[in-house]
Amino acid sequence: MAQDDNKLKKYKSKRDFQSTPEPQGGRKKDKNKPIFVIQKHDATALHYDFRLENQGVLLSWAVPKGLPEDTSEKHLAIRTEDHPIDYAKFEGVIPEGNYGAGTVEIIDSGTFTNLKDKPLEKNLEDGELLFQLHGHKYKSVYALIRFKNTQKRSKQEEWLFIKTKIDPEA
Ligand code: MN
Question: Does residue 114 contact residue 36 with C-beta atoms inside 8 Å?
Fold first, then answer.
């Protein structure tokens, strides 16, 4: 799909696929439920990559401290380039000399439910996401709130990752 190619331009421009085992693309088999993944990435600085499926790619944030375990915490999440769907299954070592060199380990994965009454794409534009994770470990309702939007593509978008008090059973 041309749209995916365009969305993955930045991802592909940062990587040499002769040299890194990371996936170049991919298609989803089960189209019913959107997926999420949390990957521990032991790169120059240890961080956790949080990814949500949207329109054929994985929206991505680098979260230095990982997901908040408590509703009183707000964790910084820096938006990074969209990743291919197949990245949700990626674990391994990105060799030295490559972008993001280091070890990638899946911490949790599963599906998620968008709890806003608008599509995820619109919430992304608005800078406010609300979703429930259906992982093995993570099952709570989280919010991602953009607090710095520079509008310039070259500058980082900073978001806050919040564990809400919303009861997932309700
Ligand atoms: Mn990373």
Answer: no
Distance 26 CA to ligand 1 centre (A): 19
Give every residue of the chain whose pLDDT is below 50, as ranges: 1-2
What is the Cα–Cα distance from 8 to 28, expressed in whole angstroms? 15
pLDDT digit string, tens, across residues 42-74? 999 999 999 999 999 999 999 999 999 999 999
DSSP string of 28-48?
Answer: -S--SS-EEEEEEEESSSEEE
Beta bridge partners of 111: 35, 134
Q: State pTM to two decimals.
A: 0.89
Phi, psi of 85 (to 5 degrees): -50, -40
| Gap from CA of 159 to ligand 1 centroid (Å) | 16
170 CA → ligand 1 middle, Å:
34
158 pairs with which residues across the strands? 78, 148
48 CA from centroid of ligand 1 (Å): 7
Whether the CB-CB separation of 21 and 76 falls below 8 Å is answered with no
How far does residue 77's CA lie from ligand 1's centre (Å)? Answer: 11
**Cα→Cα distances 97→6, 68, 93, Å:** 25, 31, 12
Is the CB of residue 104 less than 8 Å from the CB of residue 90? yes
